[in-house]
Design goal:
single chain, 150 residues, mainly alpha, elongated
């Protein structure tokens, strides 16, 4: 799965599901507030980074800084690994649910991209750089052709 917008949408969905579901889990004593806060911070960082990747934009400057709401790479890999296990298990338990299977496939892909080099983030950054260079080259050629025409 290399559909960046689909992966960004699933990353946002996973984060939103935690935002919605964690208050009940905390109230039921199934997860601590600290654990919920940590996972929400990490899932938000994953979703924000994938939104930027899908748009071919630079990562937010806070993305790798846990003190500013971001997450370390190892936290992202660990969290996506746990999400991948849970979503794949749920999809396997409901083989008729195509949407759940698609989500599980996307979570697997998010994890795969997180632990690869070049990563999706690196590829987006290189695309941004190459686009900037191409724009500068076009501007330079345009300026040169205007000077030659005069």
């Amino acid at each position: 799965m290399h559909d960046r917008p689909a992966l960004a949408a699933v990353a946002a969905y996973l984060h939103q599901q935690r935002v919605i579901g964690y208050p009940d889990l905390i109230a039921a004593g199934k997860i601590s507030q600290a654990a919920a806060d940590r996972t929400l911070r990490i899932s938000n960082a994953i979703a924000a980074d994938w939104a930027a990747i899908a748009a071919i934009e630079p990562a937010p400057d806070w993305i790798a800084d846990p003190d500013r709401g971001g997450a370390f790479k190892r936290e992202r890999v660990e969290t996506l690994g746990a999400m991948a296990i849970r979503t794949r298990t749920a999809a396997d338990e409901a083989p008729e649910d195509e949407r759940l299977r698609d989500i599980a496939d996307c979570v697997d892909a998010l994890l795969w991209w997180e632990d690869r080099h070049p990563s999706a983030r690196w590829l987006a950054d290189m695309t941004i750089e190459l686009r900037a260079r191409a724009a500068a080259d076009r501007a330079s050629r345009s300026t040169a052709s205007l000077g030659a025409a005069a």
